[in-house]
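Appendix B, Record 12. Input sequence as logged:
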Amino acid sequence: MSEDLRPERLLKLGEVCHKTSCGSTFIYAEMRKERFPKSIKLAEKCVRWRESEIDAWILLRQEETRASAGGQ
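Logged structural output:
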């Protein structure tokens, strides 16, 4: 089976918190403000985040930090 056909890795909330170093309250608040990737609802009490979207969010924050530090 080709790697391209594999489903994307989905992260649990704890993994998202660990990867971003952000707490769940911050994550959900930023989601409401549409400044954090939306979760995918898999079941009534089961949500996950696409790892690629979390990685992209982290990279964007890093770029913004570099840009603002360079502009001082």
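The mean pLDDT is 92.
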